[in-house]
Each structure stands twice: as C-alpha cells, then as structure tokens.
Write a structure and sequence with these properties.
The chain contains 15 helices and 13 strands. By secondary structure, the protein is α/β, with parallel strands linked by helices. The chain has 2 domains: 193 residues, Rossmann fold; 160 residues, Glycogen Phosphorylase B (Rossmann fold, 3-Layer(aba) Sandwich), CATH 3.40.50. The protein has a 7-stranded parallel β-sheet with strand order 3-2-1-4-5-6-7, sandwiched between helices. A 6-stranded parallel β-sheet has the order 10-9-8-11-12-13, sandwiched between helices. Helix 2 crosses helix 3. The longest helix is centred in the C-terminal third of the chain and has 14 residues. The radius of gyration is 22 Å and the shape is globular. It starts with a strand and ends with a helix.
Length: 374
C-alpha cells in the first residue's frame, strides 16, 4: 500500500514511521511545515522544500527579522500555497491512503483538498491534547465536527479520544489505541538502588503543564518532616526564572534541570522511586509510559479520565484529579509514600510493559491496523 503521511517533523512522528521500515508499504511524507529532510528516515520518500520559490535560507531570515512587513508581502506573492504543493504531491504519488498526524497540524491545512477528493481514504492519528483540549473551544467545534465527518479511519493514543471522535461525527473505522510514537523497546533492569521517597518530576509549566503546584506540594511534604528528594527536568527558561524568584531552586535535595539528554533521563527514572506528571490536558503521556517502563511508580494527572486507562489508582500508581490544587496533590503524594504499590500493581505495570507498550508487540498491531485499510 502507498501511504502518504502528513505531519510536522517530531520525535513521535519519526518513531511511528520507523515501525514501517521493513513492511510491504511504500511510505511518503509531506513535510507540512516545510522543516526539511529527515536524515534518519532515508527510506521514506520525502516531499520537502516545497514552499520557498524565492528568498531562501539566509536572505529569507534576514528580511523576516529586519523587515517583517516586506517579508509578509513577498511571501504572499512568491511562496507556493500549501494546497497547491499538496495537490501536486498527491497527483504525483497517487496514494492509497493519506495519514494525517494531529488535528490542527496534519488535518486542518489539507481539509479543503480532502473535501474535494472524498474518494481518497483519510486516516487520522490523535496526539495528546490534540482533540480533547480543543473540543469545546469557541471557533473550533465546527471544524472538528467537519473533520470527524470526513475521516475514514482513526488511531488514538487513548480510548477517551475514540469516544470524542464518535461524538463529533466520526463514522469510520477506529483502528486501535497505540502510543503516539509507537511502542518502546524493553529496558534492561537498572542495577541502581532507588532512593526512598525520591521523585522525578516533569517540569512543564505552560498552557497545559502544571509543574509548579507539584513542586510546592512536595515542599509542603518536606516541611511536614517527610524526607523527600526531588529531581525536576525539562524546565523552560521562563519557568526557571519564576522558580528563582520564589526561592525554589536552592532548596536542599531539590534539583532543577532545564535540558537533559533522553538517555540520561531514562537512567534518572531508573534510580527514582516515583514519577510525577501533572497537566490540565493530555492523552497518554509518552513520558508516563517511559516512567512505567523504567520501573517508577507513576503519579499522573487524569484529564478526561485518559490516565485512568493506564493507572489503577492506589494499586499500580496514583491519579491526580485536581492538577492545580496543591493540597490535593500533597495528599496524593503522601498516600504514595505511605502505601507504595501492591503486588497486583507491579504485575499490572509489568503487563503494560510487555504488551501495551512493547515495541515489537505494538509494531505488529500497527501493521495489522494498516492492513485493514481498503
């Protein structure tokens, strides 16, 4: 089958596509943001550099930064419209299916074309907050319904989003629930001793992320006499400045890190007892999956009950139901420290590692999903 994928260049997209490398499928990629060739996917036919007719590279960036109004005018006149480039790509490739990743990144820009060409099967993959966060936002509900009505197939990273799609008018075939980037390779058990009451925290404080209430809740536990150590990763510059302003970066046994190599992050997970991710909107977080694979006891917010599909609350991990309530978060973490998880919980997480999240298992199921497309 000839598959034309429409997506931005991201690690999750690259990992998903890699599952198809040795399959019978012929894979193409339309670089929706015109970001450039992906060196790690040389076997994929890549449609890149489609946008810029003039003003390339250094000259383009110079004008954009120094003369933004002129840049906009020149772009409107000389740049190739996305729909024109996409139409040319489809006519040349003649795909058996078009696979869009993320609603507003991979679907919205080509919606007009797909409405005009309903004979071409359309598959959509939802990522994280993609549809859940925007479902009830003003000005976006009609677009979501229009896309859902046009789609022929869908893949989601949680059951919650499957039901949202159906509610919004999707009448096609749901091909399965899979991690957004496909499965994960098994981790070799770490020889490190996990420090008791140690927490590794996803440090996102942004539109969706709510790391600050977590950090403050952990500090409340310290004030109560709980011996806890905290490692916060992925902190943005702006958030770091806020933490500095509130005198939260020089506290004993609290380490704040901006950037961390992915391999080192996984190693850190293998030496900490608990992982915490907290947000007001998400699907199945990839970092949560990595934490479970690495043997952490997961503590995670539960927007729309998506995380409850993965974590058995109080058994295999702990759910945060009120992601902005410091007192609630403190109590959840206190419960985790005092009760840990049960043998049943350990068995549950091991089952997820070996089935739901395992790279080999997921890849086979993904290939079976593609085979259902006619």
């Amino acid at each position: 089958m000839r598959i034309l994928m429409v997506s931005m260049n991201s690690i999750h997209f690259r990992r998903w596509v890699a599952q198809l490398e040795h399959s019978e499928h012929e894979v193409y990629w339309f670089d929706i943001n015109d970001q450039g060739y992906i060196e790690s996917l040389p076997w994929v036919h890549q449609v890149t550099a489609w946008k810029k007719r003039v003003l390339k590279k250094r000259g383009r960036y110079f004008i954009k930064s120094k003369l933004p109004y002129l840049y906009k005018q020149l772009s409107n006149v000389f740049d190739i419209p996305l729909e024109t480039a996409f139409t040319e790509a489809v006519n040349e490739i003649q795909p058996d299916v078009i696979h869009s990743f993320a609603l507003f990144i991979g679907c919205k820009p080509i919606m007009n074309f797909m409405e005009k060409n309903k004979q071409i099967p359309w598959l959509y993959s939802s990522w994280g907050s993609d549809i859940y966060f925007r479902e009830n936002k003003a000005g976006e509900t009609s677009f979501i319904s229009n896309v859902c009505s046009r789609l022929d197939y869908a893949i989601t990273d949680c059951e919650r989003d499957k039901h949202i799609l159906i509610k919004e008018g999707f009448k096609g075939e749901h091909l399965g629930v899979f991690p957004g980037g496909g499965g994960y390779p098994k981790r070799i058990s770490s020889t490190k001793t996990r420090k008791k009451n140690s927490f590794i925290v996803k440090g996102y404080q942004n539109e969706h992320g709510r790391a600050l209430p977590v950090i403050k809740a952990l500090l409340e536990l310290k004030k109560e006499g709980k011996e806890v150590s905290v490692f916060v990763f992925g902190v943005s510059d702006d958030f770091y400045k806020l933490l500095e302003k509130e005198n939260l970066v020089t506290i004993e046994n609290v380490e704040i890190r901006k950037n961390i190599d992915h391999a080192l992050l996984l190693e850190a997970m293998e030496s900490h007892e608990f992982y915490i991710g907290n947000s007001i909107s998400d699907g199945t977080p990839n970092t949560l999956i990595e934490a479970i694979i690495s043997g952490c006891i997961p503590i995670q917010s539960n927007p729309g009950n998506a995380t409850a599909e993965i974590i058995k609350d109080g058994v295999s991990g702990y759910l945060i139901e009120h992601p902005e309530d410091i007192g609630h978060i403190r109590q959840v973490m206190k419960n985790a420290i005092e009760h840990n998880i049960s043998e049943e919980g350990i068995a549950h997480n091991d089952y997820l590692k070996n089935t739901t999240f395992d790279r080999t298992v997921v890849t086979q199921k993904v290939l079976e999903a593609y085979s259902k497309i006619s």
